[in-house]
């Protein structure tokens, strides 16, 4: 009986271990010394919110169009240190909008309705970022690529439900293990 319990426990652990996600460098990932792990020209993320990424000698800008705003993060390019409390303006065609800084999140948000409607149209949108922090000021150009089948932006991130298919693979060994333990407990009492 102990052999059956051990093999079921081992099988359950093996199934759970195989389900663990693999570690990988995502687009925009940085190493321990601030180096860019995804190379100089990162491939656009598929399946996520429309994204713009650009950098200069001073700053790196990463923006996502989701949740009813264009959310922009600004870092120092050489140290990857977030630049908080600066001033950011975004220009698109004839429109210009000043971003609101969210101290709680550390991002700069554009929520101008006219600009967001224009940016939500599928296609490539050339953006000009004007960023000022203290004595440093920079102009950065980037392209927001909005695919024709842009995902609905809820601000919740992408959900993956594939793991639900694994529930029977986890549930069956767990149920068998519980059943064998109950049997062993009743045999010991008898």
Automatic annotation (TrEMBL):
Domain of life of the organism encoding this protein: Bacteria
Naturally occurring in which organism (per UniProt): Pseudoduganella chitinolytica
UniProt keyword terms in alphabetical order: Membrane, Signal, Transmembrane, Transmembrane helix
Stretches the record annotates as Disordered: 28-48
Compositionally skewed regions (Low complexity) per UniProt: 39-48
Signal peptide positions on this chain: 1-25
Parts of the chain that traverse the membrane: 161-178
Designated name of the protein: Copper resistance protein CopC
């Amino acid at each position: 009986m102990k052999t059956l319990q051990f093999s079921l426990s081992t099988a359950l652990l093996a199934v759970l271990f195989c389900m663990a996600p693999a570690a990988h460098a995502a687009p925009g990932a940085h190493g321990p010394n601030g180096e860019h792990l995804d190379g100089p020209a990162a491939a656009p993320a598929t399946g996520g919110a429309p994204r713009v990424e650009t950098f200069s000698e001073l700053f790196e800008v990463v923006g996502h169009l989701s949740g009813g705003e264009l959310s922009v993060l600004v870092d120092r390019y050489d140290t990857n240190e977030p630049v908080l409390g600066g001033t950011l303006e975004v220009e698109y065609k004839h429109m210009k909008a000043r971003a609101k800084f969210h101290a709680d999140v550390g991002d700069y948000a554009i929520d101008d309705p006219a600009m967001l409607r224009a940016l939500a149209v599928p296609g490539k949108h050339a953006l000009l970022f004007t960023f000022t922090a203290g004595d440093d000021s920079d102009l950065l150009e980037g392209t927001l690529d909005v695919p024709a089948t842009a995902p609905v932006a809820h601000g919740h991130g992408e959900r993956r439900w594939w793991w639900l298919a694994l529930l029977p693979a986890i549930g069956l060994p767990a149920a068998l293990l519980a059943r064998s333990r109950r049997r062993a407990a009743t045999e010991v009492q008898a």
